[in-house]
Amino acid sequence: MPTTRSTDDALAQTAVRALISQAELTPKPGLADTRDLQARATGTDLLALRWSAKSLAPGFAAMAAAARRPGEPTRALREELGAIGRCAEWTMARAGGGPVTGRLHHGALWVLGLLVAAAALEPGAAPDELTATARQLAAHVDRGAPRRPSAGSQVSATYGAAGARGEARAAFPHVRRALDALSAARAAGATETQARLDALLTVMSTLQDTGPLYQAGPPALRRVQDGARGVLEAGGAATDRGAAALAALDAELRAQGIAPRGSAALLAGALFLDALPARARTRPRDRGHVARG
């Protein structure tokens, strides 16, 4: 029988693999991926991306261990998770990844940290149960968080966008939609890369992503959402029309410097939940939780 420590390490490694898989997914419209990273210094940036993601493993394991102690999503646990997350981000910044990889991993640390803690609190729970537990954690105020406003909080205040915290407090509806999109694309015969791209586009099509809002305001967000819907309506990444629409959207967003990083972070959360043991995805619901958004 696995020890508690080995279980925590396993959750951490699953989170790291999800983070790397999301970052390496190609072609992501408007987002850095292997095309950009391999173009730099004969691939050393790709190695740095993996190294900086792996540097987060001790932090994720510590979050899992912290969650097991109280066994419930308390305010004290939320504050401990926040402190661990800030230490993990500090470690990542000094792991040699540089600003490119730091931007790729920053938002996903919040998403994955909450989901890792939820998975530790409820071993074997189904995805909608885990996202509901993450919602309970996110509802608590972290009194140790820095008081200076972030770009995301400024955008949320200006435009009323939910942002990363709002997404968590709503039980990660876009993570769950990404999971549904993954299942549907796989069932239709898509490759794993095509299924993951369709999942990303599904998130992009409705998420109020604060990245485009910060970069160029509401018109940029509308372009991201409309473009993502256009790719899906053309058949998704697995079809010729969909692939052509995806390439056109990618070129347009890159030319305008619009990067929907919030969508990518939520895809990482979906890949984490998707990689948990099959029993965690099929366990019958046995108590009331938030319905799918």
List the helices and strands and how they pair.
Layout: H1 4-24, H2 34-38, H3 44-54, H4 57-68, H5 75-93, H6 98-121, H7 127-138, H8 151-159, H9 163-169, H10 173-187, H11 192-206, H12 210-233, H13 240-256, H14 261-275, H15 278-282
Helix pairs in contact: 1-3, 1-4, 1-6, 1-14, 3-6, 4-5, 4-6, 5-6, 6-7, 6-14, 8-12, 10-11, 10-14, 11-12, 11-14, 12-13
Structure description:
It is a single chain. With 293 residues, this protein is an all-alpha fold. The chain has 15 helices and no strands. α5 runs antiparallel to α6. Residues 279-293 have low confidence and may be disordered.
Summed up, what is this model?
This protein is mostly helical. It is 72% helix and 0% strand.
**Helical proportion, percent range:** over 70%
Which stretches are low in confidence, meaning pLDDT under 50 for 5 or more residues running? 279-293
Major sheet, described briefly?
A: none
Question: Which term fits the overall shape?
Answer: globular
Structural class computed from helices and strand pairing: mainly alpha
The H-and-E topology, N to C, reads as HHHHHHHHHHHHHHH
Number of DSSP E strands? 0
Instruction: Report mean pLDDT, rounded to a whole number.
Output: 86
How far apart the termini lie comes to: 36 Å
Roughly what fraction of the amino acids lie in strands?
under 5%
